[in-house]
Amino acid sequence: MIHDCKAPVTRHLVLVRHGQSVANRSGLFTGLLDSPLTEQGRREAEAAGRRLAECNWRFSAAFTSTLTRAVVSGRLILDALGQPGLVPQSFAALDERDYGDLSGLDKIAADARWGAERIETWRRSYAEAPPNGESLRDTVSRIVPCYLRTIQPAVMGGDVLVVAHGNCLRALVMALEDLSPAEVEHLELATGSVRIYELAADTTIKAHWIDG
């Protein structure tokens, strides 16, 4: 159950990772590749929407990345909520972290080329970037301005849904929860998972809770 007692204050930010993509299922480094949802991924997005609907969530605004797996997940969630008329705004700043030369490779191929230890460092660390790609720090540097400029003001006016990607959302969660680089290395966000934040009038985080 996602928080069965929603507070009367209506300044909430709901973050959802998209459902499973074809590249996720194949174990590929996806990044900016525009991989569509699998049937399981569609079910995961619909299930997230149903869980939110059970708690009577209604959104005044919604945002997604520009990538198909997030856009379609957002639409499925809003359909499950009975809000098909709410059209999300899509921003490239919410696109997944660019995996550069790792994009489209599976772990076996990547390990063979660069070594397992180096691959794990690129995957999980804050500051290290794969060749021609982004580090998590780089991702933070584009996500946070988008949040402050566009998403946070929307939250001040009502409950807001954001549907995006694992590393993109790790970057945003790092900023929202003031996580250290060491702490964010261990943060995992499953496909279809939901994180909810309640903001105070001064925009600080009053509370947060997690589903999945």
Automatic annotation (TrEMBL):
Leader sequence residues: none
PANTHER family found in the cross-reference section: PHOSPHOGLYCERATE MUTASE
Catalytic activity: (2R)-2-phosphoglycerate = (2R)-3-phosphoglycerate
EC supergroup of this enzyme: isomerase
NCBIfam families hit by this protein: pgm_1
Record's keyword terms, sorted: Gluconeogenesis, Glycolysis, Isomerase, Plasmid
E.C. designation(s): 5.4.2.11
Site (Transition state stabilizer): 165
Protein name: 2,3-bisphosphoglycerate-dependent phosphoglycerate mutase
Record-listed substrate binding positions: 17-24, 30-31, 69, 96-99, 107, 123-124, 166-167
Keyword Kinase: no
Similarity-based family: Belongs to the phosphoglycerate mutase family. BPG-dependent PGAM subfamily.
Active site: 18 (tele-phosphohistidine intermediate), 96 (proton donor/acceptor)
Recorded metabolic or biological pathway in which this protein acts: Carbohydrate degradation; glycolysis; pyruvate from D-glyceraldehyde 3-phosphate: step 3/5
GO biological process, alphabetically ordered: gluconeogenesis; glycolytic process
Function per UniProt: Catalyzes the interconversion of 2-phosphoglycerate and 3-phosphoglycerate.
Gene Ontology terms, MF aspect: phosphoglycerate mutase activity
